[in-house]
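Aim 2 progress update. The chain analyzed this quarter is reproduced below.
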Amino acid sequence: MLVCATMWLYSPDGRAAGVTAAPSSYDAKLIDLERRYTFWSFEQNPTSATDAGIHTYDTRLADFSPQAQAAQMAQLRAYRNELAALQPPPGVSAHDRVDYLLIRANLEGDWWDRTVLRGLARNPSIYEEECTDGIFAIVKRPYASDEVRIHAAIARLRACPRVLQQGQANLNDAVREFAQIASDDIRDGQGIFTTSLNEVARDTSPATRADLRSAQSVALTGLNAYRAWLDSHMGSFHAGGFAVGEQQYNWYLRRVLLLPFDAREIATIGRLDLARDRALEAWEQARDANQPSPPEPAFTSQAAFLQYYENSMTRLVAFIKSHQLVDIPPYIGPFHIVEVPKALAATYPGGFMNPPPMFGRDPEGFYFVPDFSPSNQSFFVQQARQSVLPLLGHEGIPGHFMQFSIAYHNPDFIRHVQGDSVFAEGWAFYGEEMLMRAGLYEGDPAARRQVIHLMRHRATRIGVDVGLATGEMTLPEAIAYFMTNAGIDEVTAKGEATRFAMGPGQAIDYLVGKTQIETLLGLVHDREGEAFSLRQFHDQLLSYGTVPYSTIRYEWLGDDTWLRPALDPMAPQEF
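Predicted C-alpha cells:
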C-alpha cells in the first residue's frame, strides 16, 4: 500500500479529488457508510468540524439538549445496525475486512463515550471546553479573513450561555474533581475570549468590534455564572467514582483500539518499561559524569529563542535525510516555528502544535513557541530550554506534523479519516528514541536525558491510566504515583492524572504504540533479512494512515495474531 504523491482532498460529501482504483462493491458500501457517519459527526460537533477544515458550522456550538442527544443516539443505532448487516462475506480481501473493523471501532468508540463515560452527566469540563475550544478553533488558524472569523466567533460567543445552561441541566452525576478542573479553567482561561479575539479583531470594522464586545460580555457572564454554580454545588458533587471497571476497560481496548492486550497485560508493559527507563537514567548519568557538559543555550530575547528552534528544525531534517531514516514526501508543507501569537499567549503558555486540517488545501503546520523567559516554569518549557530536538521530532518531523500530513494524503476515504491515537502517539514517541539511537543527540546530553525522562514519564502514565480506569487507584494515589515514578512536580502530576481520569485509554497510547512498532520492526527485519531497510520500513508503516497497528500487521504480513482478540465474539453492548 503506497502513499500517492498528490494531495487527496475530500469535499463535504466525501468524494475524493481523484481516484486510483475502484473499490469492491462491498468496500464501496463501507465507504458510503463511513462517509455519512463522518460528516454527520462533524455536523453534531461543529468545533471538531472547524478543526478539520470544514467551515460549514463555524457559527455554531454543539447542542447538548436531551432532545438532540436522543436524536443522535437514534442515528448512531441506525449506523450500527447498518454496519451489522455488512459483516464481511467469505473470501473478502484483507483490505476490506480491515475497513469494516475500522468503521466498527469508530462507532463503538462513539457509543462508549456516550454510555460508559457518560461525560454529559458527569464531566462539567465538557461544557466550558465547548465554549473555549469553539473560539480556539477559530483563532488558531487564519483560514479566512479576520472579519469572517470574528463574525463566526461572535455567533459562538452568543451560543455559550445556552451550552452552559444545558450543562447545568444535564449534570446529575457530576464528579467533584472534574468540576474543580472546570472551575479553575474558567478562572484562568478567559484570555481566549478577550485578549485572543481582540487581537484577531484589531483590523476589523468598528461595527464588528462593537458587536464583538457585546458578545464577549454575554459569553463571560455565562461562564462566570456557570463557575459560580459549580463552586456552590462542589460539596454535593461526588468525589471519585470515575473508574469504568476492568471489564469495560478491556472492552474498550479490544473493540475500539483493536489492541491484543487486556488491562493487566498493558500494566505489565508499563512496569517493565519503567524499570528499564530508570536504569537508562542511571547509565546516562554515569556516562555524563565522565564527559564535559556543554553549556545550556542562553537566550537574550524571544527572537533568539525562535532562531534556536529554527536552527534545531533545520538540523533535525538534515539528519533524517542524511541517515535515510524516513522519506519526507515533497508534498509535505512547511512547518513554521513561530511565537505564540498574542491571540493565544494568554491560554497557551507552554506552546503547542497545529497540524494541517484533515479536509482542506492548507498543508502548513505550526509549532507555537512559548515565552522563553525564566518566569515561565512549565515542566515542558523548562525541558525545551535545555534542548528542543526531541520536542520537534515528536511534534514536527518525523512526528505528528509529518505523520498526519501523510495520512491526509491517503486516497482511501476510510483510512484518510482514521485517528487512532495509539498509532499517532506511538509513532511520535518511537521517533524520539529512534533519533537518539541513530546518533542525533551524541553531543547533546540534555537531549538524551530529556528523551529518557519522557520515556519514564510515558511508562508511568500507563500505571496511572490502568489504575484509575479499573478502580485500583484513587486520584490522590495516581498523583503520588506520578510524582514518584515520573519525576514531575505536583501541579503537572495533578493535571495529568485528572485528565486521564476523564478519558481512560489515552495515556497508554505512547508506550503501547511504540512497543507495537518495535515488534513489527523485528518481524519485518526477520522476514527481509539483509534486504531490510529502516527507511522503507518507516515509509511503509506510515502509508497505512492513522490506523491500529494490529490492522497493519494483518495487511502487511498476513498475520492476524494481534487482530484475533478484537475478532473474538465479545458481544457488542446494547444501548
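The CA atoms of residues 30 and 100 lie 7 Å apart. The beta strands are 335-339, 352-354, 365-369. These observations will guide the mutagenesis experiments scheduled for the next reporting period.
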